Amino acid sequence: MALYTLGINFCFLPASAQMPANYDEDKIKPYQLPDPLRMENGKTVTSSKQWEKQRIAILNLFKTHVYGAMPGKVAGLTFRTLSVDSMALDGKAIRKQIAVIFGKDANSPKMEVLLYLPVEAKSPVPVFAGLNFYGNQTVHTDPGINLPTGWIANGPTGVENNIANVASRGFQTERWQLEELISRGYGLATAYYGDLEPDHAEGWKTGIRTTLAKSLGLQAQEWSAIGAWAWGLSRMMDYLETEPLVNARQVALTGHSRLGKAALWAAANDTRFAIVISNNSGEGGAALARRNYGETVEVINTSFPHWFVAKFKEYNKDPNQLPVDQHMLLALMAPRPLYVASAVEDQWADPKGEFLGAKHAEPVYQLFNKKGLGVVQMPDVNQPVGDVVAYHIRSGKHDINAYDWQQYLNFADRHFNNPAK
Ligand code: GCU
């Protein structure tokens, strides 16, 4: 099978991804999932009230065994508006660029948020938020978007020697569907994940896990790159809460692939995100870790040692020993609407494992009388299912495209009852 169809991003291709992977359902080793409702004292959670405590216990297990600590807000967090254009996208949108500065001092580390809002909105709008892979300038060809100055992975057009140039503008337009979002009454907030931590094994040395170690009171090794990216999403939320044109109670957090893992971890910690969308997040995201299908715990830990805490590597040989599995991460979203999406040609991410992750989160949603997927088996291709917990598997490769966004917009319309549309 071509690496492309396995959903492997060429520019991040790790050597260990070439280790043979299992794609045969008959070769899945037997496993037993931990029960999210089973408390430490052996009793079962039976009410949403009891779940509050259990939720914290599960969150702590993920901190210890998988993603590491999650610090709170940094002191002196500052938002500086860098530019505003009320005539962006041919007069359809307002474009704002904001420096989210992690400290009082102007030289503190920062992340740049790009925000688009529909001009025609009569009231504060719901917003889709998420990190991007190659810089804000890649989400649209709009020449007013600032180019990032930091390290970017080589690979895409317009990135040379790890620096982005103007030729990278609009490189991932397809993945963001910005005009469609605006025309349907939604805003978009995004930031480049490398502003938080460059995505390579040594990235932590120049990222916020080092530069903010003192101000956050946390050593770099106590958390992870996914933790740092997720932390940045919460700081984006801090900013959105101050923006009068945004309805901060209607922020849908999205993320594709590794950034889907980060989005799930962010939303698990931060319940201000009202909707959570995992797009092809795979291993370490929505897919069950216990299934040896496509990418495994061992492979991900070997290829991307910086993504998780060191302790997670102890489960390389036997994920059955993990006290959690990813259905429990998804359960931490309850009772908020959750959408999990897969792609047929993205077997590397284990679509069935992603479906089962969502399926096994259902008992927790039931505590809140919320309906789950409404199906027992995986649905057919391009047949979305579910209400508060939704799922689809679309045709095509590892990606986030117009089809995915149509489902997410419909999902958000349904749950936000978007008045602006
Ligand atoms: C690799 C990695 C996945 C990840 C993906 C991506 O394929 O193995 O775990 O989700 O990159 O982020 O595109």
What's this model, at a glance?
The chain is of the alpha/beta class and 421 residues long.
Order of helices and strands: HEHEEEEEHHEHHHEHEHHEHHEEH
Work out the helix count: 13
Question: Which percent band covers the strand fraction?
Answer: 15-25%
**What is the structural class?**
alpha/beta
Helix proportion range: 25-40%
The count of strands amounts to: 12
Count the domains: 1
Overall average residue pLDDT: 95
| CATH topology title | Rossmann fold
Question: How far apart lie the N and C ends?
Answer: 43 Å
CATH class membership: Alpha Beta
CATH-defined architecture = 3-Layer(aba) Sandwich
User: Order of strands side by side in the largest beta sheet?
Assistant: 1-2-3-7-4-8-9-10-12-11
Keywords: Hydrolase, Serine esterase, Signal
InterPro entries: AB_hydrolase_fold (IPR029058), GCE-like_dom (IPR054579)
Protein name: Acetylxylan esterase
Organism: Rhodocytophaga rosea
Task: Describe this structure as you would to a colleague.
This protein has 13 helices and twelve strands. About 50% of the residues are buried. Helices cover about 25% and strands about 20% of the residues. The chain is globular, with a radius of gyration of 20 Å. The protein has one domain (about 55-415): 3-Layer(aba) Sandwich (Rossmann fold). Residues about 1-15 have low confidence and may be disordered. It is an alpha/beta fold and about 425 residues long. The longest helix is centred in the first third of the chain and has 20 residues, at about 50-65. The structure holds alpha-D-glucopyranuronic acid. The site of alpha-D-glucopyranuronic acid has 13 residues, from helix 9. One of its GO terms (molecular function) is carboxylic ester hydrolase activity.
